[in-house]
Amino acid sequence: MDxxxxxxxxxTSRLVVGTGKYSSPSIxxxxxxxxxxxxxxxxxxxxxxxxxxxxxxxxxxxxxxxLDYIDxxxxxxxxxxxxxxxxxxxxxxxxxxxxxxxxxxxKLEVIGDERTLFPDTEQLLAAxxxxxxxxxxxxxxxxxxxxxxxxxxxAGAAAVMPLGAxxxxxxxxxxxxxxxxxxxxxxxxxxxxxxxGTASDAALAMELGADxxxxxxxxxxxxxxxxxxxxxxxxxxxxxxAYLAGRIPRQMYASASSPLEGFVGR
Amino acid sequence: MIVxxxxxxxxxxGPMTVSDLLSRLDIDARTVAVEHNIVVVKRTAFxxxxxxxxxxxxxxxFVGGG
Lengths: 266, 66
Hints:
The structure holds 2 protein chains of 2 kinds. Chain A is α/β, with parallel strands linked by helices. Chain A has helices at 25-35, 87-101, 121-133, 146-154, 176-185, 199-207, 217-220, 225-245; strands at 4-6, 9-11, 15-17, 39-46, 76-79, 105-108, 137-142, 161-162, 191-193, 212-215.
């Protein structure tokens, strides 16, 4: 069985999906099913504070929560620190996520720039060190920089998650060679996180040797998210099989597939 | 007393426990995580953690994200 193992936990699916940007919870539920994913990312945010009522006053119950729509017996929750701009914010958010989700896994994001949402790798490394010390399983979202990935791994990250392209851009893998190099360097699972636009992007990431692909917008933002989720499931599987099968070398000229003898009339 | 609740100044009557605060706000304690003066409060300690004048409280839950 070709399983993905991160920090001792095994997954059959190599596709990790998000829970954001869906037009409705029911479409998200169907897309998650179609994706075959076993791990889903969630964000940690302040609840809306209603004005406090006096003792004895009653009020309608609070709004429904995201967790009403995620079967946590089927899906492993991966809280993220999306939107954090400093190591301190990310560490606080990770601790809250651990308490809310009762697992010590975190998708660590520390953003350094608003327009590109590129990570601040200096802050990311600092937060990784702190959270690893506190016993977290840290999956850091990072730039596709082999040196940074190595530093994160040395800091104790349980996986490295370089971007294929900016978050939500749908541009696909922008620097395949960097991902190849990261593949060679990495001794922890390599998850390509962000930038996927369509199925071939996911397949390419897997063909380059990624252990998994993480995506949200590519599915949630597709015209038919449920169909795209299935396409992504198949693409990740196809890419993985192709990687394991070992592709033929690229060459400049043709190499005939049919015999070069026994031609008719010659 | 005035506390800083999710970044907003909120007036509450007297010191109260985190459990009391959540119940006053009609927030289901099982669906949220709470930070009290930058330190996460374990769910099992909601009933014994006192919120006092000037305290900084964060109450969070999970929302959709990537």
